[in-house]
């Protein structure tokens, strides 16, 4: 049988492409050796948010007196949290399976390997069968980066060191947790375990946490969690993993930290080995598959979506890239843009951002106006919180007066940031934004308040 599209990988990129293409009437074969849903559904986005929500509720219960509610004997059952997390994941994986069935997608659960082409068709072998397709989408995802640290391999084998996958199945709360890496995954897990009772230390090689997020917001986030009890060791490199401890070096000190569990969270790398990509000559750049605005590779009718292209290692970016690839296959005009792609760190408070930072604009020499205000300008924020640290930073192009960047620290911001993303994508001017009616009272009104203060 000849398929219209062969898809390697069943994560957000792969299953979204399969659903869209299947619904468009194409014949699809999707290959996934593990579980549908990929890292996001099984080891990332969904399980972590399930657990973080339990921690948030626990924190609310412990501090309910602020809101005139008295609660007693509050406890946290980590084993039950893991059980609930697994149930949520199972339900959602079932939902993806149903989508594939409803879209007429043939799912092959097996290792798959490319074997170049047979004539004009791409060949994939799996389960001792040969599958031929007119188009090919590579959506094989990413895997944790494992740096060459002395003793790290032994630590991973013993369970003393865990990755983002294994930490989600811990049924006991570690008394001392050390996190190697202060990026998104590391911070979310540091936030979770600090809230439920662990003593947490975060070691980061850079002089700041939270990667390339706005410098003011990441400093505020660090201050908030320092006050909560997390210890941050910056500009430090882990040099050894021992039996119950890790050693690190910074510019002026070499020291050891005892820990019960160590979370390794220093980034992820695209998975491009083991699939036979070299049989097609797919171009790889910086360890990732190189793609254009239509998610095409250098090989005609071969596409790549998701973490494997190294662009934005986010599930929602993968889904949109998959849609662009399928639309291109269908002959529809479409292109992938990243300036409206939001990012979120689901700590408490949350961080959300979209568009340019002031640092990027300064580097470009691009003139801009900027305003930052606390969320206390929002009535709902004042009513529903204890007025924790928060920030709304808006950046506007000084030439055409359009919104080009929005950076938020506070509650609900993961649900709000899409508002700013649409404004940026549509190149809305300040005047046009001011004409939009926001529901009141909502926290999202903070964006409108900032716009009025910025323009007057």
Describe the secondary structure blueprint for this structure.
Elements: E1 2-8, H1 12-23, E2 28-31, H2 38-43, H3 45-62, H4 78-102, E3 106-108, E4 113-118, E5 121-126, E6 129-138, E7 142-144, H5 152-158, E8 161-162, E9 176-180, H6 184-195, E10 199-203, H7 215-228, E11 231-233, E12 236-241, E13 245-250, E14 254-258, E15 261-264, E16 268-270, E17 284-285, E18 288-289, E19 302-304, H8 315-329, E20 343-345, E21 350-355, H9 358-364, E22 368-373, H10 379-384, E23 391-397, E24 403-410, H11 413-425, H12 430-434, H13 445-455
Parallel strand pairs: 1-2, 1-6, 2-3, 6-19, 8-15, 9-10, 9-15, 10-11
Antiparallel strand pairs: 4-5, 5-6, 7-16, 12-13, 13-14, 17-18, 20-21, 21-24, 22-23, 23-24
Helix pairs in contact: 1-4, 1-8, 3-4, 3-6
Comma- or semicolon-separated keywords:
456 residues, alpha/beta, FAD/NAD(P)-binding domain, Enolase-like, domain 1, 3 domains, 7-stranded mixed β-sheet, 5-stranded parallel β-sheet, 13 helices, 24 strands, 33% helix
Describe this structure in words.
With 456 residues, this protein is an alpha/beta fold. It folds into three domains: 2-144 and 269-329, FAD/NAD(P)-binding domain (3-Layer(bba) Sandwich); 152-266, FAD/NAD(P)-binding domain (3-Layer(bba) Sandwich), CATH 3.50.50.60; 343-455, Enolase-like, domain 1. Helix content is 33%, strand content 25%. The chain contains 13 helices and 24 strands. It has helices at residues 12-23, 38-43, 45-62, 78-102, 152-158, 184-195, 215-228, 315-329, 358-364, 379-384, 413-425, 430-434, 445-455, and strands spanning 2-8, 28-31, 106-108, 113-118, 121-126, 129-138, 142-144, 161-162, 176-180, 199-203, 231-233, 236-241, 245-250, 254-258, 261-264, 268-270, 284-285, 288-289, 302-304, 343-345, 350-355, 368-373, 391-397, 403-410. Helix 1 runs parallel beside helix 8. 45% of the residues are buried.
């Amino acid at each position: 049988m000849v398929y219209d599209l062969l898809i390697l990988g069943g994560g957000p990129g792969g299953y979204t492409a399969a659903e869209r293409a299947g619904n468009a009437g194409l014949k699809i074969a999707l290959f996934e050796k593990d579980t549908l849903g990929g890292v996001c559904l099984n080891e990332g986005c969904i399980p972590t948010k399930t657990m973080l929500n339990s921690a948030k509720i626990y924190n609310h219960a412990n501090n309910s007196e602020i809101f005139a509610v008295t609660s007693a004997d509050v406890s946290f059952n980590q084993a039950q949290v893991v059980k609930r997390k697994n149930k949520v994941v199972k339900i959602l994986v079932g939902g993806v399976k149903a989508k594939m069935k409803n879209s007429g997608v043939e799912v092959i659960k097996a290792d798959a390997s490319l074997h170049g082409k047979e004539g004009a068709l791409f060949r994939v072998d799996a389960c001792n069968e040969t599958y031929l397709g007119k188009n090919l989408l590579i959506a094989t995802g990413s895997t944790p980066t494992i740096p060459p640290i002395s003793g790290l391999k032994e630590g991973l084998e013993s369970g003393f060191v865990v990755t983002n996958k294994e930490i989600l199945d811990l049924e006991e709360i570690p008394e001392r947790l050390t996190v190697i890496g202060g990026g998104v995954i590391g911070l979310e897990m540091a936030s979770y375990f600090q809230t439920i009772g662990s003593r947490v230390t975060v070691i980061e090689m850079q002089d700041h946490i939270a990667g390339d997020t706005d410098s003011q917001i990441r400093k505020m986030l660090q201050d908030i969690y320092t006050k909560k009890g997390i210890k941050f060791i910056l500009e430090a490199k882990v040099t050894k993993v021992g039996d119950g401890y890790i050693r690190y070096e910074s510019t002026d000190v070499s020291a050891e930290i005892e820990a019960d569990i160590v979370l390794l969270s220093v980034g992820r790398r695209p998975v491009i080995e083991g699939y036979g990509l070299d049989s097609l000559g797919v171009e790889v750049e910086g360890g990732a598959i190189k793609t254009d605005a239509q998610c095409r590779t250098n090989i005609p009718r071969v596409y790549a979506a998701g973490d494997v292209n190294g662009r934005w290692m986010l599930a929602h970016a993968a889904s949109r890239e998959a849609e662009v690839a399928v639309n291109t296959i269908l002959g529809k005009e479409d292109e992938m843009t990243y300036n409206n792609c939001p990012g979120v760190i689901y700590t408490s408070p949350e961080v959300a951002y979209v568009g340019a930072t002031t640092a990027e604009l300064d580097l470009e020499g691009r003139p801009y106006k900027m305003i930052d205000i606390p969320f206390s300008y929002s009535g709902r924020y004042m009513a529903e919180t204890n007025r924790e640290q928060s920030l709304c930073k808006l950046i506007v192009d000084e030439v055409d007066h359009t919104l080009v960047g929005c950076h938020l620290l506070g509650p609900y911001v993961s649900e709000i940031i899409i508002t700013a993303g649409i404004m940026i994508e549509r190149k809305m001017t300040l005047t046009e934004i001011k004409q939009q009616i926001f529901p009141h009272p909502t926290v999202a009104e903070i964006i409108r308040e900032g716009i009025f203060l910025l323009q007057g």
